[in-house]
Amino acid sequence: MIADTIVARSRGRDIGPIGTASRVITGAIALAVPVAVSGVEWWDVAAALVVLPAITTGATRAVAALDLTDDRRGGVCSAQACLLIAVALASAFGLGAVAPVDADVAFWGWLGSSLLLGAAYGYGGCEVLAFPNALTGRRDRIGCLLFTPIDAAEARRGNRR
User: Fold this and answer.
1) For 63-116, how does the pLDDT look when each residue is reduced to its tens digit (9 = 90+)?
2) pTM, two decimal places
3) What are the residues facing 7 on neighbouring strands?
4) 3-state SS of the chain?
5) Number of C-alpha atoms within 13 angstroms, CB side, residue 118?
């Protein structure tokens, strides 16, 4: 079940100052660029901060139940991370098809907000679990292509705070 496919982490900061800064910078860019290009409406914010986090929270349990073990738990990337990002992306574009939501702004708003939440929490896993972990009080973790190598290098150097 979930314990077999997603590694639970202990409380405290999983990331050091470089991991935190990289998430803040990337999150700010993910938020700013689509808003600067397309603008933002209240429904885009609602989709990014309410609907997509709710969908990814539910999808986390469903994806874990699929038992997509690939012997890379906590590794650089995982099947779970890719599937959860695909679910969020499909959900954003699905919302854009049935509601006046700008799918690009909603998706990047969710992703940027997740990165900022992860930086604030000190969460060292893939940003797709930042909202689900905050909402459920868990500390599940799956690998992230961009940030796992940064976090691993900081951990080897003892830079966690």
Assistant:
1) 877 766 554 444 455 677 788 888 888 988 898 888 898 888 999 999 999 999
2) 0.79
3) 141
4) CHHHHCEECCCCCCCCHHHHHHHHHHHHHHHHHHHHHHCCCHHHHHHHHHHHHHHHHHHHHHHHHCCCCCCCCCCCCCHHHHHHHHHHHHHHHHHHHHCCCCHHHHHHHHHHHHHHHHHHHCCCCCHHHHHHHHHHCCCEECCCCCCHHHHHHHHHHCCCC
5) 36
